[in-house]
Amino acid sequence: MDRMFLPKIEKQPHSVQTNRGGEMRPSKKLPLLVASIFLVGGLLLSLGCTSNNLPLIPSDPHPSDGASGQPRSLTLRWSGGDPDPELCYYDLYFGNTNPPPLKEVNLLERHCEIVDLDTNTTYYWMIMAQDEQGDTAAGPIWSFSTARGDSYEPNDCFNSAYGPLVFGAVYESWIWDWEDYYDFYYFIPDTSGIVKIDLYNLPADYNLFLFNERQEGIGYSMRYGNIPESISYHVIESDIYYVGVFQYGPADSTDSYLLKVDYIQGRDSYEPNDSFDEAYGPLDLDMTYQSWISTPYDVDIYYFVPPIEGRIVIDLYTLPANYDLALHDSSYNRIALSENEGTESEQIEFDVSASETYYVAVYSYEGYDAFDSYYLAVHYSEALQSWGLMFGEKKLRID
User: Fold this and answer.
1) Taking a C-beta distance cutoff of 8 angstroms, is the pair 147, 69 a contact?
2) Where does the chain hold its CATH 2.60.40.10 domain(s)?
3) Helix, strand or coil, per DSSP, at residue 383
4) Distance between CA atoms of 130 and 81, rounded to whole angstroms?
5) DSSP H or E run through 254
6) Which is the CATH superfamily of the domain at 59-146?
7) Level-2 CATH architecture, domain 158-263
8) What's the maximum distance between 2 C-alpha atoms anywhere in the chain?
9) What is the rounded end-to-end Cα distance, in angstroms, of the chain?
10) Are 316 and 376 contacting, i.e. CB atoms less than 8 angstroms apart?
11) CA triplet 43, 48, 54: central angle to 5 degrees?
């Protein structure tokens, strides 16, 4: 049987614009069907036509459906996607009526920040997913309710602290009078890292305090007047932390303050590494590591195991404060030290043995900066590298 193949035919995608709610939607790609065409015994056959799958129905809302006591500013989140390798757009319907009106169109991310909500109000929301071919999938209508004014009371002591606070959420509350001298909250971090606690929009002179789970003070901010207060601190996963808002002078029962707790950097995945038992490693000898000293007492300890004997160089640089560098052997004995003044870089050179464990300690001699990082690198000396024992470009690691 004679068979003759013809060229594969594939038309370029067309673009369309749709009009929804009086607003023109940007162009979207609408691929046409693709087929392979060939002749078999004088018959023209076509195989390989493609079809489109609908987007996934939006699900898993946050806040959860029917949730109550939500803050006035929050981030709506949901699950979704598309079974096909194409973009999926999301329209957000949101408001205090059911069904809710259209609020946002063509969202590419599965989250949207909502601010300045009313207290003691029920809100409704729905997500409409649409793929590049115009097929849609609508999620159900969800709802949540915001808190009633100061619904966090009574929270005047550790035992009645309100929480756990949601990271990134903004909480609005009041100091009513001299009877309401303290407002206590608590949070439980889901991972170790540096958090920033902000107290702002202050109607009077309020101060901010941070306590550990033993209710011991570990941080404070006491600026004069109604200047915003802020505390940065390195927290440990699953520990309990208490936040205290204290009035210093007369309270203002008519105007509220705002409180927010959130991570401020990449959730330093090397922590906890404050002891030899918790040392992070083994370090790769062709990488540069970025990390932070987050408190005056924060010590960062790493370890490495040299594959061969030779001279190792340890570099600590781009220092935001006066940090020092130490090298310890496998018995934790200090065997080398670099303690230059100020923010001058630190360096240690040492002859190491193969397959032995060595510990590197970075600590503050004077000052620290929880917002600004340092860089650490461990490598063989240039002489060894030139012999071909080490090779390849250095890589920057930021976890």
Assistant:
1) yes
2) 59-146
3) helix
4) 9
5) none
6) Immunoglobulins (2.60.40.10)
7) Sandwich (2.60)
8) 99
9) 63
10) yes
11) 140
Name which of 298, 304, 265, 297 is nearest 283 in CA terms: 304
Q: What is the pLDDT along the chain (399 residues), one digit of tens a residue?
A: 444 444 444 434 433 343 444 444 444 444 444 444 444 555 555 555 568 899 999 999 999 999 987 877 889 999 999 999 889 999 999 999 999 999 999 999 999 999 888 878 999 999 999 999 999 999 999 999 987 666 788 899 999 999 999 998 999 998 866 667 889 999 999 888 788 899 999 999 999 999 999 999 999 999 888 899 988 888 888 999 999 999 988 777 667 899 999 887 555 668 778 899 999 999 998 789 989 887 777 899 999 999 999 999 999 999 999 999 999 999 999 999 999 999 999 999 999 999 999 999 999 999 888 778 899 999 998 654 443 433 333 344 444
Phi/psi-derived region of residue 12, left when phi > 0, alpha when psi is between -120 and 50, beta in every other case: beta
- The dotted CATH code for 287-397 is 2.60.120.380
Angle among Cα 45, 50, 54 to the nearest 5 degrees reads: 155
3-state helix, strand, coil in the chain (%, to 5): 0, 50, 50
Type of residue found at 102? L
**Pairwise CA distance, residues 158 & 240, whole Å:** 11
List all residues 6 or more positions away from 297 whose beta carbon is below 8 Å from its beta carbon.
none
Handedness of CA 186, 189, 194, 195 (dihedral sign): negative
Contact 210, 278 (CB under 8 A): no
Tell me how far apart the alpha carbons of residues 56 and 8 are, in angstroms, rounded to a whole number: 31
Can you tell me the distance from the alpha carbon of 242 to that of 221, in angstroms, rounded to the nearest whole number?
14
**Cα–Cα distance measured from residue 48 to residue 37, given in angstroms and rounded to the nearest whole number:** 9
Whole-structure pTM value = 0.42
CATH 2.60.120.380 residue ranges of the chain are 158-263, 287-397
Closest CA to 294 of 364, 397, 190, 197: 364
101 token code pair = 């009106």
Q: Residue 230: beta bridge partners?
A: 198
∠ CA 148-69-67 to the nearest 5 degrees? 140
